[in-house]
Amino acid sequence: MKHFYLLITFLCISFSYGQNAQSNGDIKDFKLYPNPVTNGKVYVSTSDTSPKQILIYDVLGTQVLETKIIGDELNLYDLDAGVYVLRVYQNNKVATRKLIVK
């Protein structure tokens, strides 16, 4: 039941934040592409060049990946096809998005 509530919380956050960073006050110029991911790589770009802390959760709310990236490229070769929640932390700001891996 705990996983269900966590999933609902992440989905609500994801839908309420939308896809445009400037309208919701999170990380400036945040972009996540391509989404859906088909080649095992996704690019997480922002206007800031500082490191990004990345957390990825499955639909049950279980953390499946935690990493830090310096550039924009994030390798997702180890993730199975499915729907995930991606959280990016950078300079005390956060962005949350739905991520689809095919």
UniProtKB/TrEMBL annotation:
Residues 1-21 form the signal peptide. Pfam families: Por_Secre_tail. Residues 32-101 form the Secretion system C-terminal sorting domain. It comes from the Bacteria. Keywords: Signal. NCBIfam families: Por_Secre_tail. This is T9SS type A sorting domain-containing protein.
